[in-house]
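Support request from a user on the community tier.

User writes: "When I paste my structure tokens into the form, the page sometimes reloads and wipes my input. The last time it worked, I copied everything first. Here is what I submitted, just in case something in the input itself triggers the reload:"
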């Protein structure tokens, strides 16, 4: 079986992506995750280019990698100088790794127009630099920059660059599609030629400018390349590097190449989400294999198929990559989605009969009014409960009032103006009606405080619940301030998170609905332990 070694460059090439700025701590944390995933080589950075990367390599010495080897990156010497005098190469040799990758030009036009040196001098630069690092006892991977573009205009010269690196002792010749514009058949054709010329291990490094980085990488592997360079989540400058989160499962599950173990493959989704958190970039839900929508099913036909055969509408079993299928409830749904979703939540809902019919009608009617349950599982679960004839909510709203006032505070040196919000809430718990008032820094905040003030008297444990995210979306932007708004709230009790939704033409009402759902949901989950409509201080 072909063997493939995985090489991740997120800490160097990936960090070029706009919006990413990794601290040294971030880089160490990501390196640990990549080690855990079983990536063979982790490119830690370019010690010759910045002090942060030197610090990274210094700190990295203290932790023992279990599966991965750390690699340092640099470039060939400049023209008309000696490799042994080059500070960049010296720092590579002294950074404490066994393997280094150096980049050099392998395209005639790049040498002449960008490097502004002769073709012969570029070959010497490659040979000298590889030779110098070899003389320091290092394994050297040679990144042949612009290889595929160079190969199109002057294949002989590009091949001579590889030959120069190979003759000087390079352990791997990494063919780069630096500008990311090649097509899979061009990659395959060039590799066939290279394969005939050298027995040195080949690698592939692609960029995604044509949306083909993954396809180009897989074409290269099919052509006999055995080192694959990419980044978790495809992070990289412009359109990104080849996405290892797509490449790894494709190699393992589709091409039968055992590049990581089954157990490590099942960590892939977790690693992808972890890296997106550290990078502070929300992961695209549609990311293949690892996105939250990668195995979600919305259409009624798909869901009824899924109920009969789990893989009827998915290309792999999502658990292989640590992901899961998800059924989305929406106005496009049939009864099947509702029943499937309810069962997923552990709720007993008969697939026929009045309850499911009523629930489906209710979901469709609420969605037409702007509610959306795809990302508000807790509100959906409440709907299922509310459709039961014997459901009793933990509290009911009688009415509320919110006042927002701009108040002038005097006397002060400079006149200060304050916005003040105050809410009064009347709720019914058990047979009792409670009336509370509270202030807040905004109307929703005031409403939240007033509602909690009322409910805490009955359910003191509710103090653990807090709002972690509050999002407002305008549904029909064209009608401006008259438009319908949807509010999504994410809440947490420190252990679990849940999401609820509210929708209305009035932002306060939409917020109230989402807020009330959040608290009602939590109380429902606590049901066996909570007081039932009895004031806590009365017990
Ligand atoms: Zn690159």
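"...and here is what came back when it finally went through:"
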């Amino acid at each position: 079986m072909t063997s493939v070694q995985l090489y991740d460059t997120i800490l160097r090439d990936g960090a070029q992506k706009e919006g990413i700025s990794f601290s040294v701590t971030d880089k160490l944390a990501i390196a640990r995750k990549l080690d855990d995933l079983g990536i063979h080589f982790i490119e830690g950075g370019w010690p010759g280019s910045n002090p942060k990367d030197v610090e990274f390599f210094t700190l990295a010495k203290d932790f023992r990698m279990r599966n991965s080897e750390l690699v340092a990156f640099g470039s060939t010497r400049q023209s008309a100088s000696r490799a042994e005098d080059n500070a960049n190469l010296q720092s590579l040799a002294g950074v404490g790794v066994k393997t280094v990758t150096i980049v050099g030009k392998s395209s005639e036009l790049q040498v002449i127009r960008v490097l502004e040196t002769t073709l012969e001098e570029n070959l010497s630069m490659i040979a000298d630099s590889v030779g110098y690092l070899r003389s320091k006892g290092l394994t050297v991977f040679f990144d042949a920059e612009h290889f595929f573009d160079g190969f199109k205009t002057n294949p002989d010269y590009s091949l001579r660059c590889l030959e120069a690196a190979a003759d000087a002792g390079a352990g791997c010749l990494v063919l780069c599609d630096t500008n990311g514009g090649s097509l899979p058949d061009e990659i395959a054709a060039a590799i066939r030629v290279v394969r005939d010329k050298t027995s040195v291990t080949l690698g592939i490094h692609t960029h995604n400018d044509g949306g083909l980085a993954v396809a180009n990488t897989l074409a290269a592997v099919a052509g006999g390349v055995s080192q694959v360079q990419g980044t978790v989540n495809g992070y990289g400058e412009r359109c990104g590097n080849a996405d290892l989160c797509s490449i790894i499962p494709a190699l393992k599950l589709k091409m039968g190449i055992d590049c990581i173990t089954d157990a490590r493959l099942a960590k892939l989704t977790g690693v992808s989400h972890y890296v997106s958190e550290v990078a502070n970039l929300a992961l695209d839900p549609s990311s293949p294999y690892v996105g939250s929508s990668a195995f979600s099913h919305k259409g009624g036909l798909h869901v009824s198929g899924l109920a009969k055969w789990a893989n009827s509408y998915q290309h792999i079993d999502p658990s292989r990559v640590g992901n899961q299928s998800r059924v989305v409830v929406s106005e496009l749904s049939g009864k099947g989605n509702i029943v499937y979703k309810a069962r997923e939540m552990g709720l007993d809902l008969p697939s026929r009969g009045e309850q499911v019919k009523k629930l489906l009608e209710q979901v469709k009617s609420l969605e037409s009014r702007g509610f959306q349950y795809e990302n508000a599982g807790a509100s959906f679960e409440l709907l299922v409960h509310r459709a039961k004839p014997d459901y009793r909510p933990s509290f009911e709203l009688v009415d509320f009032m919110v006042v927002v006032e701009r108040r002038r505070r005097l006397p002060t040196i400079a006149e200060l103006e304050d916005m003040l919000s105050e809410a009064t809430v009347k709720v019914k718990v058990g047979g009792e009606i409670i009336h509370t008032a509270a202030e807040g820094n905004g109307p929703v905040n005031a409403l939240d405080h007033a509602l909690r003030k009322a409910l805490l008297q009955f359910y003191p444990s509710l103090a653990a619940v807090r709002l972690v995210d509050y999002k407002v979306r305008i549904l029909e932007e064209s009608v401006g301030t008259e438009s319908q708004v949807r509010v999504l709230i994410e809440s947490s009790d420190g252990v679990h998170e849940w999401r609820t939704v509210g929708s209305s033409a009035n932002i306060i009402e939409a917020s109230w609905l989402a807020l009330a759902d959040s608290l009602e949901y939590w109380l429902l989950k606590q049901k066996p332990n909570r007081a039932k409509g009895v004031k806590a201080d009365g017990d």
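Agent notes: The reload is a front-end session timeout and is unrelated to the input. The pocket of zinc ion is lined by residues 13, 205, 207, 241 (CB under 6 Å). DSSP finds 18 helices and 16 strands in the chain. Escalated to web team.
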